[in-house]
Amino acid sequence: MNIKNILFILLIILSVNTLFAQKDGYWDKERATKREIVVSARERIVIKTEELPIGTTEVVFRITLLDVNQQMANSLVSVLKSIPDPTGISQGSAGAVFLLSKISGDDKCKYAIFSNEVLAAEYKKNGTTAKACYEQNVAVSKDAKGLSIDKSLCILPNSNAMWFGFESKNWLMNQKIVLEVVPWVNTRLSSGWNLENRKLILNQCKSTDLAKKIIPSDDFCVCVLNNLQKEYKFQEFQKLLPIEKSKAYADFGNACLSQIGTSDKIFSDLRNQVADLVKQAKYSEAIEKSGIIVVYGKANVKDFNTLGYSYLMTKQYAKAIKSLKEGEKLDDSELLIQMNLAHGYLLNKNFKSAKPIYKKYQFQNVTDSLSWTRKVQQDFDTFKKAGLPSGDFDRVLRLLED
Q1: Strand partners, 114
Q2: Under a CB-based contact definition with an 8 Å cutoff, are residues 61 and 180 in contact?
Q3: According to the lineage, what is the superkingdom (predicted)?
């Protein structure tokens, strides 16, 4: 079988597979690079490709050296019309391109590829290829290859170009080099949400005020990230003003806290954090975290009681009374709520409202082993140590002795 028949069969196979494979992406011919350049004898030159589109996961490139009067028979883009998804059968696409790249001159050159402009500039200055992401160190008259993001450092997640460096091996005459580069764009990744960008957003989310109040914040920030991906392309989100980004984090954060599947674990963790903070007498922090539970409608009787107690310990008596009354609406038989409500009235100089509550439950237990009177005595001791006004404490204790 001659070479023409082999090529014909290969192209038929590739064309059929195109119908199925290209659903996951496409060859971006609009942003393909085609440059014809003249390299002077013994010169090095660097060529930057056209901007690589977001979601580029593979590129196919072809390099051809021509005699002065020769023209390319077929462009690389036209060849790739018959080559499907590079993740499928066209793993051999570079080989197919090589077979179809039949026109070349007698001159040869070496080349190297760089992932950033600084390295390319070093190459142009001194010819070093130590930091090249790909190097062809044997002079060739033509070459065609494919590079993929998972196997080559030439295509970096947030890089928007590649730099080709050429070194002429003709010591006397100029060389004409044709460089063609065509990117493959993964449709799913074209939104810009690659691994590095997702990590960036997760870290930004964890630095927000709301996330700092939630430990651990991993589940919360993953939820925020998922919502951001649905609403924005990565590049769109990055172009927002700082105040717009903050609002987006806040809005999506609120939505995540309101989602039942996510919130159960988050609010359970918050309750544990609040309990630890109260034990450490860090009442202001406890108030802040308890407030999240209340704002999102997840507070139970114990939450309102803890919040009310924390307000008492920070001398915010009106807020304490308000929170404790909210808890009372949920369960007016919870004696810890009733006791703290009495404390709130007492500390707020309203002995008249506190007295009937203290008297009403004086013969009951607040737990299975702790009496109401004993609990009042313990609380008063704690209040004295915290510097709360104690002028009416003895008056209440005498009242409970009757």
Answers
A1: 163
A2: yes
A3: Bacteria
